[in-house]
Design brief:
single chain; alpha/beta
Length: 287
């Protein structure tokens, strides 16, 4: 889930029902987006990020069953949770909702606390699925990149830094509208004298920029011969992180460090800052 407020699309042709949902959800930290029918709901889903959809069934132009099916047919929105809220109570209608792809089905009038509990549960499931998918896609892309490097490997003309540039670009480069990737990367690599050279990467204006840093830090958290290790910190424990000198350097560029994921070995260390959400062991594994 994004560090911004979870965004819930409420779809109902009755304005009064939309106002009730907004009055219930907004004070609890959710951003409420409203749509009056199924077609408008599909437009909203395509226009902006949504974290969950509360969908009425009986609506003009396109009913909830058709709208849900359209959402779930698009691979991009396959993991977007849809909760159908309706006065229909028959088993046949519930089966139609399940067949359309809805994750849950709540009858009107609904219990507000029950609805809130189900929303929290579905958002948590979506968050875990998103993180797993993000890690899986990243790992696949990095494997492909590594395979291409091996195919073109020339030991007589090998430029290590350019290869590192390509890997870091894969980690940091963002597509339009994407905010899950890190904002900056600081990398330390050992030279022939076992001293660290330091570089900072930033993704700005659609390009990855590398700048050399003058840091008097010549080792990371592991010594020669030690096993590589990973670490991650979020805002709650960033002040006690073992890489405070690196964090202070990053703050000169990114201002506020909200999270960091690190990989440490005796030859190279890499620190990725400010993913657009909380970081976990999945991100550390990818790095």
């Amino acid at each position: 889930m994004n560090l911004n407020r979870p965004r819930i699309l409420c779809v109902d042709d009755e304005t009064a029902n939309l106002k009730i949902l907004e009055a219930f959800l907004a004070p609890r930290g959710y951003e409420v987006i409203k749509a009056g029918n199924g077609r408008e709901a599909l437009e909203k889903v395509n226009e902006q990020r949504m974290d969950l959809v509360l969908l009425d069934v009986m609506m003009p132009e396109m009913n909830g069953f058709k709208a849900c099916k359209k959402i779930k047919e698009d691979e991009k929105y396959r993991n977007l949770p849809v909760v159908m809220i309706t006065a229909l109570r028959s088993m046949e209608d519930r089966i139609k909702g399940i067949e359309a792809g809805a994750e849950d089905f709540i009858s009107k009038p609904f219990d507000r606390e029950e609805l809130l509990a189900r929303i929290k549960m579905l958002l948590r499931v979506k968050e875990l699925n998103d993180r797993l998918r993000f890690a899986y896609d990243n790992i696949n892309n990095l494997i492909f990149l590594g395979e291409e490097m091996i195919k073109t490997f020339d030991p007589l003309n090998f430029d290590l830094l350019s290869k590192i540039d390509a890997v870091v670009s894969q980690i940091i480069q963002k597509a339009e509208g994407e905010d899950e990737r890190p904002q900056a990367v600081i990398l330390g690599i050992s030279d022939e004298n076992n001293r660290r050279q330091w570089f900072q990467y930033n993704f700005t204006c659609g390009k990855v920029r590398r700048d050399q840093l003058e840091l008097n830090i010549h080792r990371c958290l592991v010594m020669p011969g030690d096993e590589p290790r990973t670490a991650f910190s979020n805002s709650v424990d960033i002040e006690t992180s073992a890489i405070r000198p690196i964090i202070r350097t990053a703050e000169a560029t990114v201002k506020t460090v909200s999270n960091v994921v690190s990989y440490h070995s005796s030859e190279i260390c890499i620190h990725a800052f400010n993913y657009g959400r909380e970081v976990t062991e999945y991100d550390a594994s990818v790095l």
